[in-house]
Amino acid sequence: MRDELAAVTLEDQVEAVTALAERYPLDLGRVAIRGWSYGGYLAALAVLRRPDVFHAGVVGAPVTDWRLYDTHYTERYLGLPDEQPEVYAANALMTDEGLSGAAETVRPMMIIHGLADDNVVAAHTLRLSSALLAEGRPHEVLPLSGVTHMTPQEQVAENLLLLQVDFLKRSLGMR
Length: 175
Fold this sequence. Notes:
Blueprint: H1 5-23, E1 32-36, H2 38-49, E2 56-60, H3 71-78, H4 85-91, E3 94-95, E4 98-99, E5 109-114, H5 123-134, E6 139-144, H6 154-171
Parallel strand pairs: 1-2, 2-5, 5-6
Antiparallel strand pairs: 3-4
């Protein structure tokens, strides 16, 4: 997995969907993915790089560029950014030039981020939104005022889940 954070974990998700479809009657034209933190990174990665499999994504507090995340976590998997800039670029959702490895097919994305997040700072989401906007890709951004990496308030968490379900229904044509 070293140096291939994106490719390995994304392929795992594709294989899981394929395996489930072999066992259960799934509508493979309406597959969505949802995640938070690393899972948010993975959800965005799936929608951007494998829109043939994933048709919508809910992306919570995603790391968009590993150069901007905690070194003690990142360097364990990707090495040092100054020594392996190409590895960091290959594993980023976006680079300084824009979206990294994004397919031409466009899928909707809801991006959620706590503005008081001190783990994955909100700048990740703002940069991703800017890159998506520059390429004309549909997305919604839901900033959570006063929320850190995850909301501790039960009512807010419940309402947040309801908003996500509504987004997925709209995005997958289930209304």
